[in-house]
Amino acid sequence: xxxxxxxxxxxxxxxxxxxxxxxxxxxxxxxxxxxxxxxxxxxxxxxxxxxxxxxxxxxxxxxxxxxxxxxxxxxxxxxxxxxxxxxxxxxxxxxxxxxxxxxxxxxxxxxxxxxxxxxxxxxxxxxxxxxxxxxxxxxxxxxxxxxxxxxxxxxxxxxxxxxxxxxxxxxxxxxxxxxxxxxxxxxxxxxxxxxxxxxxxxxxxxxxxxxxxxxxxxxxxxxxxxxxxxxxxxxxxxxxxxxxxxxxxxxxxxxxxxxxxxxxxxxxxxxxxxxxxxxxxxxxxxxxxxxxxxxxxxxxxxxxxxxxxxxxxxxxxxxxxxxxxxxxx
Length: 329
Known about the structure:
Blueprint: H1 8-28, H2 33-44, E1 49-52, H3 59-68, E2 70-71, E3 74-78, H4 85-89, E4 90-95, E5 98-103, E6 110-114, H5 121-124, H6 127-133, E7 135-138, E8 141-144, E9 150-155, H7 168-173, E10 176-179, H8 185-194, E11 208-209, H9 210-221, H10 227-242, E12 246-248, H11 252-268, H12 276-287, E13 292-293, H13 295-299, H14 304-314, H15 324-327
Parallel strand pairs: 1-9, 1-10, 2-11, 3-6, 6-9
Antiparallel strand pairs: 4-5, 7-8, 12-13
């Protein structure tokens, strides 16, 4: 495929498909349009998504609805304290005089990891190679995972009983973290009516397949980002490393993933170029879970979302006289 910017026809295809996906997921999760938009952005940016909140607010439903819109193999993992790494990645079995590899549930285009922080750190770490390199190494042999490959993991707050905090390296593999929150009274009432006789997930039909998704990912990746826009991303991420409220800032991987996500958001909006608005809209979901607060900040009751929000207000935003500047190559 050409390495030039996406054509209007390609962008129109991407917008049509993602709009249909969003519409379908909205029928399952009422009033969560903003969350659905970020989830689709992560999907197009070929990242991984972490969904966090208390039980029962729709974390797994969001993951399952996103997977249902894609006609591709889906792997489901229920994380428990006794889960072993081989239960995720697969195992070599000795049969008929030779070893035969039996793949685990990670060998799918979409992997749903339910309550990931209920498994031990050893089992959580089994996903590191999968999420970063798209492969699994077992007994010295590497096995490639399908492409595109997306992990949608849910987790309960670490204050809840029976949870293990995700290590920094694991959190850094997730492009974005979403907090679902409780629905409004109107949305909850609509949910009661919608689920009285049938589960909306049962009627959710696929919108695209793995090949189509791969094509859309490539279109989004070719969305143009100007040098000034890239500098803004770098300045924002670098500021997390110098902020006194943080004892650990975001990694260079965060810069790469923030720009990828911004490209995907621009493409979903029908644009062939990225604007500072795209970066600002995604900065908190992409950066907040990667930073560690200082003791003083924690005692003051602050969280990563607030610190990143403060940085957004403080870092100068590049200004263009016309939007044409952002689209100039």
